[in-house]
Write a structure and sequence with these properties.
The chain has 156 residues and is mostly helical. It is 74% helix and 0% strand. The longest helix is centred in the last third of the chain and has 18 residues.
């Protein structure tokens, strides 16, 4: 039988400062962490205010870091990034600011590289099925359909 550890507000505050300092976090993640620590709602609010005032928690900074990382590493398109940020409860202002950080040349070059890579991977003799498989892959990754079909039009 496991007994849940209880934390004082100061202990939880210190623990969450380390949690937020280690990696950028969104408000939703931090609230959930506090709930998992069995903190009461009043304590959660006090700790959240402290983290925001001390700049451990910053929604816009999180959004920019998230977009930058997921675009560079996972090669996600703007639709997927937008959907993931909305799911995390990020404000429209912060989402827009983060998406503006993406360099358009990098964006188009990344799409081009993804199309080329996927075209080589898909071993489908039928041109239309191949085009659909590549398009589905890109759309799943959140690339805008107009861009995807425009880019595929260059290859087919």
């Amino acid at each position: 039988m496991e007994i849940n550890k209880s934390y004082t507000v100061n202990e939880a505050q210190k623990k969450l400062e380390h949690y937020c300092a280690y990696q950028e976090r969104c408000h939703k993640e931090v609230r959930q962490k506090l709930r998992d620590m069995n903190m009461i709602p009043e304590a959660i609010d006090v700790i959240m205010v402290h983290l925001i005032q001390e700049n451990f928690l910053n929604e816009e900074r999180f959004a920019k870091a998230f977009v930058s990382g997921k675009f560079r590493i996972k090669k996600w398109g703007k639709n997927r990034l937008l959907r993931e940020l909305k799911f995390r409860g990020i404000s429209k202002y912060s989402i827009d600011a983060a998406l503006r950080e993406i360099d358009l040349d990098d964006y188009y070059n990344t799409l081009d590289a993804l199309v080329q890579k996927r075209m080589e991977q898909v071993k489908e003799p039928n041109v239309y099925k191949k085009k659909k498989k590549v398009a589905d892959y890109l759309l799943y990754r959140g690339w805008e359909s107009a861009l995807v079909y425009e880019k595929l039009g260059e290859y087919f």
